[in-house]
Structures are given as structure tokens and as C-alpha cells.
Specification:
With 94 residues, the protein is mainly alpha-helical. It is built from two helices and three strands. It has one domain. Helices cover 57% and strands 11% of the residues. A hairpin with a 3-residue loop joins strand 1 and strand 2.
Length: 94
Amino acid sequence: MNHTPLSWYLSGGWVIRGTEAELVAEVLDENVEANADFIVTAVNCHDDLLEACEALLAESPKLTMVTDELVDRLTYSAARRLAEKAIAKAKGEK
């Protein structure tokens, strides 16, 4: 089973739609707009956060070793940039 393709967006403040304007969900509670916005942000950040976490985990053996090798430092920097990008997106920053 697959979910509706990303990216999702808000329509009318509480209706969540997919890329083809298909209905994904309607949020019906006392905080509809805030909750709907949070759902859309979280869903749209999923792939970036997953990529960042996977990159950090893949590099974790190298990060635990004390070394001055340039390759290890550059790999860590690339993983850190992925994590920073995903975190900024999750916080709604550009």
C-alpha cells in the first residue's frame, strides 16, 4: 500500500490535499488549522529527515574514530549539512 504522493498542501485551512489536488484528509478538531499545518509540514519533511538520519547513521562508525583524515571530516560535514537542511525545513525556515 502506498500513500498519496508528496508534496501535500493545505486547502481551506483544514483540508489536506495531494499533488493532484486529491483529498488526503480533513482535520476536524478545536485546533484545525494548526494541526493541519503541522501534519503537512511533518509529512513533507519526512523524506529529508529520513535521508539525513540515514546519512548520519552510515557515517557513525567513522565519527566515533579519532582521526585527522580529510575524507572523514568531509563526509561528516556533508551529513551535517543534510541534517541542518532537514531541521530547517521541519521548522518552516527556508
